[in-house]
Amino acid sequence: MAQQEDVFKKLVSHCKEYGFVFPSSEIYDGLAAVYDYGQMGVELKNNIKKYWWDSMVLLHENIVGIDSAIFMHPTIWKASGHVDAFNDPLIDNKDSKKRYRADVLIEDLLAKMDDKIEKEVEKAAKKFGESFDEKMFRKTNPRVLEHTAKRETLHTRFAKAMNDGNLEELRQIIIDYEIVCPISGTKNWTEVRQFNLMFSTEMGSTADGSTKIYLRPETAQGIFVNYLNVQKTGRMRLPFGIAQIGKAFRNEIVARQFVFRMREFEQMEMQFFVRPGEELKWFEKWKQTRLKWHKALGLGDKKYRFHDHEKLAHYANAATDIEFEMPFGFKEVEGIHSRTNFDLSNHEKYSGKKLQYFDPELNESYVPYVIETSIGVDRMFLSVMSAAYKEETLEGGESRVVLRLPAALAPIKLAVLPLVKKDGLPEKAREIIDSLRFDFRCQYDEKDSIGKRYRRQDAIGTPFCITVDHQSLEDNTVTIRFRDTMKQERVAIADLHNIIGEQVSMKTLFKKIIE
């Protein structure tokens, strides 16, 4: 785990050094848990968004997109339950004066218990080698059974307290399990209190009286209040979906782990409207479709798992997370929820407007049920970066840092490098860039030795380097170097477009999703 944490620290500094992510307002000493995406980061982020957007609206005839406003009528948040129920259970340590989420403190303890079990299994696997039967070991080893029993006892108690909204019991668990403050090391805790996560602001001048409004904590409600507009103007028939990418804001107290949990973040959400009674069938279908979308990137199938919710939100009848193995453990990247007709029914009640769909096949009107897929752009960015970041030792003892980014997502698709800065090579290199720039993000680099230039491109994840040498002037061929293998091939300049186009096209990813 410690080794993974070191890798994570290196990744964070790599993001800053190479223009992917900067701390926000850094010249003013920054703003906690807020980050800016740099020139490389914004390209990667845009490519992730394009991959998601096109996988929704390009691959599905019955999914369309919208872009709703961040400011919305305040009653919307009353109807959605956010004003009354969008809370985190917080606890303060009286000695360090630090505030924590009670549920996160307990989840961290559960993670430590999981680590103990995994260490026992790893130790045994080393000891017994190929003859090791992991399933049997987990079922029979006394130490593993003891740790598992302790974990289950805590987990059952914790899940019940969360489901019941029992704040006293959450505090009691922290006391009983002697959970200490990570800063002060003491157990001097306050009571647990609920804290609403929405940012509020005022709209209108004080002269004519201002209205309290909220920065949206999710993009979903903008879709719900527009669902009938879209259905009618687009003549959509159920089932159909509405997709949206946009900023959301949550006043997270425990904002941490770089861009994993921030106060200002971006979501990619799709709400899929279905007939009542068919929602669980569609829930299963979207679970599989979304997992395929992730796996198509080739970051490693074993890095993903489903985590079904024990505590369902007040509006859901099924919910699961797609978790990705980050350097700090498996964490949620995407949520898939069967939201029933909760949102639309409540908006109907609070607005007094009919939000029913007339089903011509059944010849009746009803409020549709909804399957939601909701993914954090920033978390997706972090999972791609952490899977791609590699430190490699090469032949001859040299080393390199390389970002093995999926070629379709890489910020720069190719770099063109003249071998020397004279003899017409820079001009030839510029010519090549001019012929490719309309389709691919290109970079020109003539500074330093060719080896150093390769390293720079490896560090930002550029899949192809094109070297222009004296032979290029004679026969219109260049050397193409492949990032992952470092192999080099001599190819005709005329073939570059096809070679690169095939590798970096999102088409190859889309084909894997619809297989």
Automatic annotation (TrEMBL):
Q: Which reactions is this enzyme annotated as catalysing?
A: tRNA(Gly) + glycine + ATP = glycyl-tRNA(Gly) + AMP + diphosphate
Q: Which domain of life is it from?
A: Bacteria
| Main location group | cytoplasm
Q: Which PROSITE patterns does the annotation name?
A: AA_TRNA_LIGASE_II (PS50862)
What sections of the protein cross the membrane? none
Entry binding sites for substrate: R101, E218, F265, E266, Q267, M268, E269, E372, T373, S374, I375, G376
> What EC number(s) does the entry state?
6.1.1.14
InterPro entries (UniProt xref): aa-tRNA-synt_IIb, aa-tRNA-synth_II, aa-tRNA-synth_II/BPL/LPL, Anticodon-bd, Anticodon-bd_dom_sf, Gly-tRNA_synthase/POLG2, Gly_tRNA_ligase_bac, GlyRS-like_core
> At which positions is ATP bound?
250-252, 260-265, 332-333, 376-379
Where found in the cell?
A: Cytoplasm
List residues of the Aminoacyl-transfer RNA synthetases class-II family profile domain.
157-418
> What are the record keywords, sorted?
Aminoacyl-tRNA synthetase, ATP-binding, Cytoplasm, Ligase, Nucleotide-binding, Protein biosynthesis
Q: Per UniProt, what is one GO molecular function of this protein?
A: glycine-tRNA ligase activity
Alphabetical list of Gene3D superfamilies matching this protein: 3.30.40.230, Anticodon-binding domain, Bira Bifunctional Protein, Domain 2
The family assignment reads: Belongs to the class-II aminoacyl-tRNA synthetase family.
- Oligomeric form and interacting partners: Homodimer.
Q: What does this protein do?
A: Catalyzes the attachment of glycine to tRNA(Gly).
The name of this protein is Glycine--tRNA ligase
Protein's gene: glyQS
